[in-house]
Design a protein that fits this description.
This protein has about 150 residues and is mainly alpha-helical. It is about 80% helix and about 0% strand. It has 6 helices and no strands. Helix 3 packs across helix 6 (about 145-154) and helix 4 packs antiparallel against helix 5 (about 115-145). The protein is elongated.
């Protein structure tokens, strides 16, 4: 029995109690989300820089290809294909590392396995799409060059 004459202290709504109890996990999850967004941004910048450098180094070859009849579409497909190949290599390496480090992150996960195939597949698709999108600008720039100007330039 509860004595109805006793005073009640610290009355708080249940939502507040639950919010305080999961605050640390919510912070850790938010931090992981922030790092994941930063990793995707670094992925895009890295692929863009690598493909941009590769296009600049092969400008003469691209000019010769276009002079010999390669279409703008073929040049774009070649460059975006290279970016997708680089991204696929990164995804393969990342999956290997995620298997290796999954045990370390298992303590932060609640009711989720360290290696969730659906999550890994989604992350791989996001990285591949980011790589292809980041390569589109250098590919468009490379396919817009005048072959005569590039060949005469060197």
């Amino acid at each position: 029995m509860v004595d109805p004459q006793q005073p009640i202290y610290q009355v708080t709504p249940l939502d507040t109690v639950v919010s305080h109890s999961v605050a640390a996990r919510r912070f850790n999850t938010g931090l992981i989300d922030l790092f994941a967004a930063l990793a995707i941004a670094l992925c895009a910048v890295g692929v863009y820089g690598t493909i941009g450098y590769w296009v600049a180094e092969r400008a003469r070859e691209i000019g010769v290809r276009m002079a010999l009849g390669a279409t703008r579409r073929a040049i774009r497909v070649m460059i975006v294909g290279r970016a997708c190949a680089l991204s696929a290599a990164g995804v393969a390496l990342g999956i290997g590392l995620s298997l290796w480090t999954g045990r370390l992150l298992a303590t932060l996960l609640f009711d989720v396995r360290p290696f969730d195939p659906a999550t890994v597949a989604l992350a791989a698709l996001v990285v591949l799409a980011t790589g292809a999108a980041a390569a589109y600008v250098p590919a468009r720039r490379a396919s817009a060059v005048d072959p005569l100007t590039v060949i005469r330039g060197e």
